[in-house]
Amino acid sequence: MATIKLYFDEDVTDALTRVLRARGFDALSVYAASLKGKTDLEQLEFAVSQHRAIFTFNVKHFAELAKQYSAEGKSHYGIIVSNQLPFSELLHRVLNLLRLRTAEEMVDRLDWLQNYK
């Protein structure tokens, strides 16, 4: 069972990526990938090309993209959405997610970070 590889869009602080990487997780930010300013669809397509679950605070647009992918029979490696949270709470919940879910379980899944309190 593989660990989830994460890709954080530009709404998420790059500090989260750095902390997760320091803890041994495979985390990539839009900034490190030099994709700042790309559309939501382009961000998701990049995540898919890298076999990564995408993490965003942009619930509305990415919930729609999840529906669109499903309707078109396309697969993704997970879409994780959250409301804005203080950094410590965000880190806590992401670590819980990484502890409780595998990469295989995230395939084609739209998941809410609120489930990992």
Q: Please bin the fraction of helical residues.
A: 40-55%
Please give the order of strands in the largest beta sheet. Answer: 2-1-3-4-5
Ranges where pLDDT stays below 50 over 5 or more residues in a row are none
SSE sequence, one letter per element? EHEHEHEHHE
Q: Cα distance, first to last residue?
A: 23 Å
What's the total number of strands?
5
Rounded radius of gyration (Å): 13 Å
Structural class: alpha/beta
Number of domains as seen in the coordinates:
1
> How many helix segments?
5
Write down the overall mean pLDDT.
96
What best-fitting shape do the alpha-carbon axes yield? globular
Please outline the major beta sheet.
5 strands, parallel
Portion in beta strands? 5-15%
Care to describe what's here?
- Strand 1 (6-8), helix 1 (14-22) and strand 2 (27-29) form a beta-alpha-beta unit.
- 43% of the residues lie in helices and 14% in strands.
- It has one domain.
- With 117 residues, it is of the alpha/beta class.
- The protein has helices at residues 14-22, 40-49, 59-71, 87-100, 103-106, and strands at 6-8, 27-29, 53-56, 79-81, 110-112.
- It has a five-stranded parallel sheet with strand order 2-1-3-4-5, sandwiched between helices.
- The protein is globular, with a radius of gyration of 13 Å.
- The chain contains five helices and five strands; from the N terminus they run βαβαβαβααβ.
- The protein starts with 5 loop residues before the first strand and ends in a 5-residue tail after the last strand.
